[in-house]
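Box S1 | Example of a co-folding query
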Amino acid sequence: MSVDPGEEDVDFKPGHEITSKKATYVVEKLLGEGGFGAVYKVKESKTGKLYALKVEKKSETKPSKLKMEIAILKLVSGERKTSHFTEIVDRGKKDKEGYFFLVMELAGASLADLKKKRGKMSGAFSPPTALSASLQCLEACEDLHKYGYIHRDLKPANYACGADKKSHTIYILDFGISRKILNDRNELKTPRVTVRFKGTIKFASMACHKGIELGWKDDCESWFYLLLDLILPNGLQWRGNQDKGTVCKAKEEVRSKPKDAYQGLKCWNILDKIITYIDQLQYQDHVDYHYIYRHLTEVLY
Ligand SMILES: Nc1ncnc2c1ncn2[C@@H]1O[C@H](COP(=O)(O)OP(=O)(O)OP(=O)(O)O)[C@@H](O)[C@H]1O
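Box S1 (continued) | Returned holo structure for adenosine-5'-triphosphate
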């Protein structure tokens, strides 16, 4: 029986070598598996430098997500002095084995991992840490938006601290379900009548729950839930709930009963101002990020 190489799982063991035109990378360990492949920590054999290598199985039926990830990372590189995007180091494809790979800058722990490490008792980050981390998360989102893309899956697991000397910089990861909302003439695409749910229930915007086309403001709404997830002592009220309807209702309650929703946080009224601003935006609207940064820094300093 012939096996389509695209359907085989990519499962590299430590010591496995991946050779490109430029270098050989030796697998150290698996960092995580996504919906369409896996990410490994690798060492470049000559220099000993460590990188992250993302692999995607080739598929006859599904468009390559890794190709889009590469296109986005190429576009946004150099957007800021301190970039929130991992640098592309190398890339290639292995026709015989049936996979594409991307070698990129190695990031450290994700915000979700860091939050977990703090333990169940403390729950969230301190307000200053949560706010300054969120500010960087929004900068990354703004940089992506400048190029006409939306991320559609912003959550603590998709942001990571930099490694070593870059541990104070936050990186945005995983553009697997990002979407370009501008067409080739740089005009906003006409919104589709219905849209299937994509992303993560806990952080999805209300438009996403309701099957309405997502715009820049929807990433900002997800970012806002990320901020709450990091800052609220007990986490988001709807954590652990996988019922889309119930979660959507709980998100509505953040608006109708803000004082309760913000669990006694001193800066609750500023957070309420931010979500009120995001909520009045429409699909086509550009976001005034500086309005949000201003409010965040007002709380921070
Ligand atoms: N450059 C990187 N440096 C370090 N770790 C990374 C890097 N990129 C991704 N990872 C880690 O690898 C794991 C898998 O990431 P990936 O982006 O493939 O998908 P995912 O978010 O787990 O899944 P899905 O694609 O289904 O959303 C995650 O734990 C992520 O933190």
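The two ends are 66 Å apart (CA to CA). The chain has ten helices and eleven strands.
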